[in-house]
Write a structure and sequence with these properties.
Shape of chain C: elongated
Chains: A mainly alpha, B mainly alpha, C alpha/beta
Largest interface: A-B, 106 and 96 residues
Number of strands of chain B: 2
Helix content of chain B: over 70%
Strand content of chain B: under 5%
Oligomer: heterotrimer
CATH class of the largest domain in chain B: Mainly Alpha
Largest sheet of chain B: 2 strands, antiparallel
Chain lengths: 281, 304, 453
C-alpha cells in the first residue's frame, strides 16, 4: 500500500474519532449547557421562554447563592466529609482488597460477598436504624457520623474494584521487593499501588462523588444549618412550590466542580503502559 | 517444669503459629477494618429490617409480631405487581444501555487524541452533578412549553405538537430511563476505561504482528481482561438501578397513575406516607433473595 | 528510699479516698442546675421575615422565662425545608429525638396524634379561649374529641384572576359560579399571534400527581357537594352523583372545552405557579407564594407588557351548585410527647399565639398567611392591602376538609394520589367517569378499613 493511501486512512480515522468524540460530548453535555445557560439568566427572564444563549447575562444567581444561603459553608462541609470518607475508605479498602487478592485464609469468599450486602437494601430502608445507631453514639447532627455512614457504601465498592486490579497484577513485583528486604506493607505502597494507579484513581473519584452527592443520609442525620452538605443546601433553596430555577442551576454548576478537579488532577498521575512496562521487566 | 519453662514454651508456640499462618493472620487483620464497618453499620440495620418485616410497626409505637402477613399483603397488592414490572423494565433497559454505551465510550477515550484528559473529565459531569440538581434540569428540559426538547424539536420541524414527555404514559417510562442512562454512563465509561488502561499494550502489538483485525483483538484480548470489571460494574449498577429513587420521585412521582412507580418510590410511599414501617421493610426483604442470588452468581462468574 | 510502713500506707490511702469523696460531694452539691433546653422546628417559609420573626419571638419568650424562673433557658429554632421535614419528623419519632415544639402542616395533627407522638393541648386551647378561633381552625386540630395542636395560620388556595385579560374580553368581574367560569375561560383561551399555539389559557388548573392537583379538584368537588367522608369523618359518601358531576365537570374542562393546558397532567406543585408567573394563565388556584413572587419580581405580560402583579385579583374561587367552598391549608403548633418540659412548651406556644404576637408575626408574612383569630381579621392592617382584604373576606368559605374534619385517613388517601389518579384515568387514559369513580372508591374503602380515622 503506498504512502498516500496510508496517510489518508489515518486522517479519515482521526476525523472519525474526533467526530464521534464531539457528538458524544454534545449529547452528554447538552443538559449541562442548559443548566449553565439557565444559571446565567435573571429569574424573570427564565419564565419568558427558551433561550439558547443567555441574554441579558446575569451573575446574580451565583452571587445570591452565597448571600441568601451559606453556600460556602455547605461546600466546606461537603469537602470535609467527602475527602475524609474517601481517604478512610481508600485505606480500608486497599488493605481489604490486598487481603482478598493476595492472601489465603478460610472463609475468604464469604467475607468478600458479605461486604456487598450493603447494596442489597435501598438506603431508604436502612436510614432509620442507622439514625438510631448514630443517636446512641451521640453522632446525630455531626459530620463524623455522616462520614462513618458514607463508609458503608464507599468501602465495598472500592474493595472489589481494587481487588480486581490487584488480582490482574502478577505478584512477582512485590515478591521481588520483599525479597530485597521490604516489609509487606512497604511492598504494597512502594510497588503495588503505583502499578494499580488507574484503579486507585477510579475508586477515589467515584467514592468522592458518591459521598459528595449523597442525599438521604445527609438529609436525615444533619439538622443544623452549619453542618449541611451541598445537596441538602441546594434543597434548602426550594420552598414547597417555589423553585428558584436560576439559583438551583447555578448551585448545580458549582456543585459539580470539585469532582471534576479531583479527576483532572489525579488523571495526570496515570500513564498508560505503566503497568505493561513494569511487568515486562 | 518451672514457671520460666512454661512461659518459653507458650511464646515458642505462638511464634510457630505465627510463622506458619502468617499469611492467614495478616489476611484477617487486613480485612478487619472493612468487616468492622459492616458489622457496626450494616449488620444491625440489615437484621433490624429483616426483623421488622415480620412485624406491624408505626413510628413511635410498639412493634407487633404478625408473621408473614406483610409479605402476603405485598404480594397480593396489584400496585406491587405494576411496580415490579416497571422496575424490571427500568433496570434492564437502563443497565444494558449503560453497559453498551459505556464500553463504547471507554474504548473511545482510550485512544490517543489531543486534550484527552479534559475530555475524560468532561465526560464525568453527568455523574458528578448532584442527582437532585441534574434531575431538576432534566425536568426543566422535559417541560412542555419552557423545555429545551420541545423547543428544538418544534423549531426543526421534527414534530408538530409538543410532546408530553412526562405526562404521556407511553413516554414517561422512556423519559425516566433516559435520565438514568445519561447519569450512569460516565460511571461505566470511566471504570471500564481504567480497566482498559491496565491491559498491556504488547498484547495488542503481538496481535497486530499475527495479523488480527480489530474485532478479534477486542474479543480475545480486551474482553477477557475486562471481564471481571464489566461483571462487577454491571452487578453494582443493577443493584443500584433497581433501588433508584430520586429520578422517578422528582420527575413523575411514579405517575401517571403508577406508570413509572418503582420499588424505591413504592417503599417510600408505604414507609413515609402510610407510615407502615413493617410493611415497608417487607418489600426489600422480599426482593433480597433475588438480589442475593444475582450477587452470588455474578461474583462466582467473576472468580473464574 | 523512704521506708513506708504498713500503717503509713493505709493512712495515705484513707486521706486520698476521703479527699476525693468530699471533693465529689462538694461538686455535686454546688453544681449549677442543668440549663433548660428547648428545641423548636419549623418549616422554612418563603418569606425570610416571617421565619426570622418566629425565631425572635422564641428568644424573647426564653428571656422572659429566664427572668421569671431565675434559671438559664436555652432555645434553638431550626428551619427545615418542607421537602426534608417529613422524613426528619418520622426518624425523630422513632428514635425519640423529637423537638419540643414544631410547626406542622395540614392533616398532620390527626396523623401524629394517632401515632401517639403529640402532647394533648386541650388545656392550652381552653386557656386561649375556644371561641377565639375560627371554627374550621379548631376542627383541623381535633382528633378523638381532644385538641392536639394549636392552630397557627391559614394558607388558603384562593383564586388568582388576570383582570386585564378579563376586561379585554368584556368581563367586568371574575365569574361567580363554575357554570359562568366555563364561558369566561373559553373566551380567555386564545392564540393571539396566530402561530398555532395557545398563548393564554383560561384555566390553569393542575391535574398532575401532586398536592395542587388534589386541592384544585377539592375546591370544585366540595362546591358541587361531594366529598369523601361525612361530618363524622368516618362514613364514606364518596360514591355519589355529586362526585361524578364534579369529576365530569373537570374532565370536560380539559377534554371538551379545552381551557386547561394539555401538559397540566404532568404538572407538579410548582407548575401552576410558573404558568401564571409567565403570564400565560388567566386563572389559577394557589396559596400566596405566587402573590409574593409577583410582588418581588414584577413580571410583565409577554404580549401586552402589562404588570401581572398590578392586574391580579385574588379572592374566593367560583361557587358550585351546592355552594361556595374551597380548600385551605392550615398549619398548627404541636408539642411532641417526649418533651422534657411540657409546661414550658405549652407556655411557649401560648406566647407565640398571643394575639398581639400573632398579629405582629402575620404582618411579616406578606400575602401568604392568614390569622386563625376572627378578631384579628378586623385589624386595620389587613385593610391596607387590597389583597389581604380580599382573601380575608373569602376565608369564611375556606375548609381544610369537607364535610368532615381532616383526618389521618383522608391524608393517606391524598398522599397516595387516589383522587389524582382518578382524574388522570379519565383525562389521560380515557376511562369513563363511572369506572374511574368506582375504582377510586374501591381503593378508598380499603384504606378506610385498614386505617379507620
Amino acid at each position: 500500500m503506498n504512502i498516500y493511501k496510508f496517510h489518508t486512512r489515518k486522517v479519515i480515522g482521526l476525523l472519525a474519532l474526533y467526530l464521534t468524540i464531539a457528538m458524544t460530548l454534545i449529547v452528554l453535555l447538552l443538559p449541562v449547557y442548559w443548566m449553565v445557560v439557565t444559571s446565567l439568566r435573571p429569574e424573570e427572564d427564565i419564565y419568558t421562554g427558551v433561550k439558547l444563549i443567555p441574554n441579558p447575562i446575569s451573575f446574580y444567581n451565583f452571587i445570591d447563592l452565597f448571600r441568601e444561603i451559606n453556600f460556602q459553608v455547605y461546600v466546606v462541609n461537603s469537602l470535609m466529609v467527602a475527602s475524609s470518607a474517601t481517604s478512610l475508605s481508600l485505606i480500608i479498602s486497599i488493605f481489604a482488597a490486598y487481603s482478598l487478592a493476595r492472601l489465603e485464609y478460610r472463609g475468604k469468599e464469604y467475607v468478600s460477598r458479605i461486604l456487598l450486602f450493603a447494596y442489597l437494601f435501598p438506603s431508604m430502608a436502612l436510614v432509620i436504624p442507622l439514625y438510631m445507631i448514630l443517636h446512641s453514639l451521640g453522632l446525630i447532627d455531626n459530620l463524623l457520623g455522616l462520614i462513618l455512614v458514607y463508609l458503608t457504601f464507599t468501602t465495598p465498592f472500592s474493595t472489589w474494584i481494587l481487588r480486581g486490579y490487584f488480582r490482574s497484577i502478577p505478584p512477582d513485583l512485590e515478591e521481588a521487593a520483599m525479597v530485597d528486604g521490604c516489609s509487606r506493607i512497604g511492598a504494597i505502597f512502594k510497588v503495588l499501588l503505583p502499578v494499580a494507579a488507574p484503579g486507585i484513581v477510579a475508586t477515589t473519584v467515584f467514592s468522592f462523588t458518591l459521598s459528595w452527592n449523597e442525599f438521604l443520609y445527609a438529609l436525615v442525620i444533619i439538622n443544623s444549618d452549619r453542618f449541611r452538605t451541598v445537596p441538602i443546601g441546594i434543597l434548602g433553596l426550594t420552598f414547597a412550590d417555589v423553585y428558584p430555577w436560576g439559583r438551583l442551576m447555578a448551585a448545580g454548576v458549582l456543585a459539580s466542580i470539585p469532582a471534576l478537579i479531583i479527576y483532572l488532577v489525579m488523571q495526570r498521575y496515570v500513564v498508560q503502559g505503566l503497568a505493561a512496562g513494569a511487568v515486562k521487566g | 517444669m518451672s514457671f520460666m519453662d512454661v512461659k518459653n514454651f507458650m511464646i515458642k508456640s505462638i511464634l510457630d503459629l505465627w510463622k506458619r499462618n502468617r499469611d492467614a493472620i495478616t489476611g484477617y487483620l487486613f480485612i478487619f477494618p472493612a468487616l468492622a464497618i459492616f458489622i457496626g453499620f450494616i449488620a444491625y440495620p440489615f437484621t433490624y429490617e429483616l426483623w421488622l418485616s415480620f412485624h406491624e410497626k408505626n413510628p413511635g409505637l410498639e412493634a407487633k409480631f404478625i408473621g408473614l402477613r406483610n409479605f402476603l399483603e405485598v404480594i397480593s397488592d396489584p400496585t406491587f405487581h405494576r411496580v415490579s414490572i416497571n422496575s424490571c423494565v427500568y433496570t434492564f433497559t437502563a443497565v444494558f444501555a449503560k453497559l453498551l454505551i459505556g464500553l463504547g465510550m471507554a474504548l473511545l477515550l482510550n485512544q490517543k487524541f489531543k486534550a484527552r484528559g479534559v475530555v475524560r473529565a468532561l465526560v464525568l459531569i453527568p455523574w458528578a452533578l448532584p442527582t437532585y440538581v441534574s434531575t431538576l434540569a432534566w425536568r426543566w428540559m422535559y417541560h412542555h412549553t419552557l423545555g429545551l426538547f420541545n423547543y428544538l424539536l418544534l423549531n426543526f420541524g421534527i414534530i408538530r405538537h409538543p410532546i408530553m414527555w412526562l405526562g404521556d404514559p407511553k413516554m414517561a417510562m422512556a423519559s425516566v430511563i433516559m435520565v438514568n442512562i445519561w447519569r450512569g454512563v460516565p460511571f461505566f465509561a470511566l471504570i471500564l476505561l481504567a480497566g482498559l488502561q491496565t491491559i498491556p499494550t504488547e498484547l495488542y502489538e503481538a496481535a497486530d504482528v499475527d495479523g488480527a483485525n480489530a474485532w478479534q483483538k477486542f474479543r480475545y484480548i480486551t474482553l477477557p481482561y475486562l471481564k471481571y470489571i464489566m461483571l462487577f460494574v454491571t452487578l453494582i449498577s443493577t443493584l443500584w438501578t433497581f433501588n433508584d429513587f430520586e429520578i422517578v420521585y422528582l420527575l413523575t412521582k411514579g405517575g401517571p397513575v403508577n406508570a413509572t412507580h418503582l420499588f424505591a418510590t413504592y417503599t417510600y410511599e408505604v414507609g413515609f406516607i402510610v407510615l407502615k414501617l413493617g410493611l415497608a421493610a417487607a418489600i426489600p426483604t422480599l426482593l433480597m433473595p433475588f438480589f442475593l442470588t444475582l450477587m452470588v452468581k455474578v461474583t462466582q462468574l467473576m472468580e473464574r | 528510699m523512704v521506708k513506708i510502713t504498713r500503717m503509713t500506707a493505709i493512712f495515705i490511702v484513707l486521706i486520698i479516698v476521703g479527699a476525693t469523696a468530699s471533693g465529689a460531694a462538694v461538686y455535686y452539691l454546688t453544681k449549677p442546675p442543668e440549663p433548660i433546653k428547648l428545641t423548636v422546628w419549623a418549616p422554612k417559609h418563603f418569606i425570610d421575615a416571617f421565619n426570622d420573626k418566629l425565631k425572635l419571638m422564641v428568644f424573647e419568650w426564653a428571656a422572659l422565662k429566664e427572668a421569671e424562673l431565675k434559671r438559664p433557658i436555652e432555645v434553638e429554632v431550626i428551619f427545615i425545608p418542607w421537602a426534608e421535614i417529613i422524613p426528619k419528623w418520622l426518624a425523630a419519632i422513632e428514635a425519640k429525638t423529637t423537638p419540643d415544639v414544631s410547626e406542622i402542616g395540614t392533616g398532620h395533627p390527626a396523623w401524629f396524634a394517632k401515632l401517639g407522638a403529640l402532647l394533648e393541648v386541650t388545656d392550652v386551647i381552653k386557656d386561649i379561649g375556644e371561641d377565639k378561633f375560627f371554627r374550621s381552625a379548631l376542627e383541623s386540630v381535633k382528633w378523638d374529641g381532644k385538641y392536639w395542636a394549636v392552630p397557627y395560620g391559614y394558607e388558603p388556595y384562593f383564586a388568582y384572576w388576570r383582570m386585564d385579560l378579563l376586561r379585554a374580553a368584556g368581563f367586568e368581574r371574575p365569574p361567580e359560579t363554575w357554570d359562568e367560569f366555563v364561558v369566561v375561560a373559553k373566551a380567555l383561551t386564545k392564540d393571539v399571534d396566530g402561530d398555532g399555539t395557545i398563548d393564554y389559557w383560561g384555566a390553569g388548573i393542575t391535574l398532575g400527581r401532586c398536592w395542587d392537583g388534589l386541592h384544585n379538584f377539592e375546591t370544585i368537588w366540595w362546591s358541587f357537594g361531594g366529598g369523601v367522608a361525612a361530618e363524622d369523618g368516618k362514613t364514606l359518601i364518596f360514591d355519589s352523583p355529586q362526585t361524578r358531576a364534579a369529576l365530569k365537570f373537570l374532565a370536560d374542562l380539559y377534554l371538551v372545552h379545552k381551557v386547561i393546558p394539555p401538559e397540566s397532567v404532568e404538572w407538579t406543585d410548582a407548575d401552576n405557579n410558573i404558568i401564571y408567573q409567565k403570564g400565560a394563565a388567566a386563572f389559577i388556584m394557589n396559596p400566596g407564594s405566587v402573590l409574593e413572587w409577583l410582588r418581588k419580581n414584577r413580571p410583565k405580560d409577554p404580549f401586552t407588557g402589562a404588570d401581572i402583579f398590578e392586574n391580579t385579583w385574588v379572592g374566593p374561587p367560583p361557587a358550585g351548585p351546592d355552594g361556595r367552598r374551597y380548600f385551605t391549608g392550615i398549619n398548627s403548633l404541636a408539642i411532641f410527647k417526649y418533651t422534657k418540659y411540657p409546661e414550658l412548651a405549652k407556655d411557649l406556644v401560648k406566647y407565640i399565639m398571643k394575639p398581639e404576637n400573632h398579629l405582629a408575626h402575620l404582618k411579616t408574612a406578606g400575602g401568604f398567611r392568614f390569622p386563625v383569630y376572627p378578631a384579628l381579621a378586623e385589624d386595620p392592617f389587613f385593610k391596607t392591602d387590597r389583597w389581604y382584604l380580599a382573601v380575608l373576606e373569602s376565608l369564611k368559605y375556606a375548609y381544610a376538609n369537607w364535610p368532615g374534619p381532616p383526618t389521618a385517613t383522608y391524608a393517606e388517601v391524598g398522599a397516595k394520589y387516589i383522587i389524582n389518579d382518578m382524574i388522570l384515568n379519565v383525562v389521560v387514559y380515557g376511562w369513563s367517569v363511572e369506572s374511574a369513580v368506582k375504582e377510586a372508591y374501591a381503593k378508598i374503602v380499603e384504606i378506610y378499613k385498614a386505617t379507620p380515622p
